[in-house]
Amino acid sequence: MGKGRDKDLIRLRDAALCRRYYYWTEKQRLRFDDALKILSEREFFISEERIMSIIRKMARQDRLNGLQPLPKVKSPRLTASQLTLFPEL
Questions:
Q1: pLDDT-derived band of residue 80, with 50, 70 and 90 as boundaries?
Q2: What count of other Cβ atoms lies within 10 Å of the Cβ of residue 3?
Q3: Angle (nearest 5°) at CA 27 between 47 and 63
Q4: Is residue 36 very low, low, confident or very high in pLDDT (cuts 50, 70, 90)?
Q5: 8 A C-beta contact, residue 64 and residue 20
Q6: Of 14, 12, 4, 13, which Cα lies nearest the Cα of 60?
Q7: How many Cβ atoms sit within 10 Å of the Cβ of residue 80?
Q8: pLDDT grade, residue 64 (50/70/90)?
Q9: Cα–Cα distance between 74 and 61 in angstroms, integer?
Q10: Is residue 67 exposed (0-12), middle (13-18) or buried (19+ Cβ within 10 Å)?
Q11: In this structure, what DSSP letter does residue 1 have?
Q12: CB–CB of 63/55 below 8 Å?
């Protein structure tokens, strides 16, 4: 018997997590960050980063049947010269 977590249980957890992500984002029409918070804090008790990595992994393996994860959101960085384009309020 090998050490570590049971791979079948992890596979089942990942599938359930993707189904719940689909439910919250598509059926209940929540924003993805709100859905991640619910999945993380109420349902699966793992970090939001881990949830997104699972969803991305499942998408790469084409196991989501059309469900695609959202890309990582990066906030734009404004420079001082770009800020001069906006009129002062």
A1: confident
A2: 4
A3: 60
A4: very high
A5: no
A6: 14
A7: 6
A8: low
A9: 25
A10: middle
A11: -
A12: no
Per-position DSSP letters for 35-84, written without gaps between them: HHHHIIIIIS-S-HHHHHHHHHHHHHTT-STT--PPPPP------HHHHT
Predicted TM-score of the model (pTM): 0.67
Q: Taking the alpha carbons of 52, 36, 26, 71 in that order, is the dihedral positive or negative? A: negative
Is pLDDT at 41 greater than 80 in this prediction? yes
Pair 69, 52: CB distance under 8 Å: yes
User: Can you read off the two tokens belonging to residue 22?
Assistant: 């689909």
